[in-house]
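Researcher: We plan to redesign the surface later, but first we want a full-length starting point. Tokens attached.
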């Protein structure tokens, strides 16, 4: 079932959750209260569902299995192994690039605005401008944000500080070589720099009200 789910169009943001993680009931604590027909949905995910029951309830169980896998996925991707799998997808730019011109095609990461299912769809977080965007594809835009959670992208940058993008200049999109400790320190320190901003001008002069507003915004962000 998992292979079928991951290969379905619109599910490209998801990574494969290790089966041993799913089979450890401790990792699924509390999910039975969020998913109807929890036991059967879990059996469907792990390919242990009885064929006769599968024929009778296939449609309804598929919906619940998607919900259950999504909630398990949100927990999995903040583990060490889950972060490593999502890191590979980030390196392949599976989640797209920031549409903001001054971010210079910075790769994005999926994030939820809430950890509660059926409330908000998934958004894409840019570590360079620290803003969020809606996915371009309507298929991706309909994915529940709770399947990625509110912590994932920030935890990824915390665990892999060498991936924190600089706030100005050209981002390093190669992900090629391992960074030294000194390079990691420089990269981590660069987050203190102000992000490049577009500044409206007329005949070379910045607009007064816009300039005051931007100075206030930057002071608040710095603080």
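Model: Full-length starting sequence:
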């Amino acid at each position: 079932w998992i292979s079928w789910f991951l290969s379905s169009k619109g599910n490209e943001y998801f990574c494969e959750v290790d089966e041993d993680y799913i089979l450890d009931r401790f990792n699924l604590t509390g999910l039975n209260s969020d998913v109807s027909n929890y036991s059967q949905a879990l059996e469907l995910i792990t390919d242990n569902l009885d064929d006769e029951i599968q024929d009778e309830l296939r449609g309804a169980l598929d919906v619940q299995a998607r919900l259950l896998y999504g909630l398990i996925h949100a927990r999995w991707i903040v583990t060490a192994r889950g972060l490593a799998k999502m890191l590979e997808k980030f390196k392949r730019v599976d989640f797209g690039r920031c549409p903001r011109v001054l971010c210079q095609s910075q790769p994005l990461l999926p994030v939820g605005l809430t950890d509660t299912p059926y409330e908000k769809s998934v958004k894409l977080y840019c570590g360079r401008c620290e803003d969020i965007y809606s996915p371009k594809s309507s298929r991706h835009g309909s994915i529940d944000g709770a399947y990625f959670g509110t912590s994932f992208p920030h935890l990824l940058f915390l665990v892999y500080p060498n991936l924190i993008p600089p706030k100005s200049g050209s981002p390093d999109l190669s992900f090629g070589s391992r960074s030294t400790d000194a390079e990691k320190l420089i990269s981590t320190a660069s987050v203190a720099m102000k992000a490049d901003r577009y500044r409206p001008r007329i005949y070379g002069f910045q607009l007064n009200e816009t300039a005051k507003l931007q100075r206030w915004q930057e002071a608040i962000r710095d603080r």
